[in-house]
């Protein structure tokens, strides 16, 4: 029973830290909300454009190189790897952001912006993977 109490106590502290972060500044709300929206869009785009047609394919192209053409093939769920990586990065950065926020506001702000930039890069990678599979 003590482990459950400890879990709920830590969960309550984490939610309180997240609430404090959320209400501290509109900039944190905007960057975290935009990052989450980019993660959702990174998962929704291949599901919308590719999923109906690629489920029966054994391997699909996942990477294009200007020198060699298509140089990486993988299973159909490989199109969701950037979205999965983006979700993992988002969750990890939110946890670190909640921990760092009280002690160093500049580092927290830098981490929030970095999360947004990384999510944007992963969305661009997803767009390229989807466009590669639409063309092929």
From TrEMBL:
Keywords annotated in UniProt: Membrane, Transmembrane, Transmembrane helix
The source's domain of life comes to Bacteria
Q: Which residues cross the membrane?
A: 27-48, 76-101, 108-135
Name this polypeptide is given = DUF1648 domain-containing protein
State the taxonomy lineage: Bacteria, Candidatus Giovannoniibacteriota
């Amino acid at each position: 029973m003590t482990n459950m109490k400890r879990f709920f106590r830590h969960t309550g502290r984490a939610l309180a830290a997240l609430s404090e972060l959320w209400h501290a500044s509109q900039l944190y709300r905007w960057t975290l909300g935009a990052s989450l929206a980019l993660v959702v869009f990174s998962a929704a785009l291949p599901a919308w454009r590719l999923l109906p047609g690629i489920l029966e394919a054994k391997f699909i192209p996942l990477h294009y190189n200007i020198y060699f053409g298509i140089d990486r093939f993988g299973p159909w769920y490989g199109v969701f790897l950037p979205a999965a990586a983006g979700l993992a990065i988002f969750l990890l950065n939110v946890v670190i952001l909640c921990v760092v926020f009280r002690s160093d506001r500049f580092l927290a702000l830098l981490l929030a912006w970095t999360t947004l930039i990384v999510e944007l890069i992963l969305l661009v990678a997803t767009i390229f993977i989807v466009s590669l599979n639409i063309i092929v």
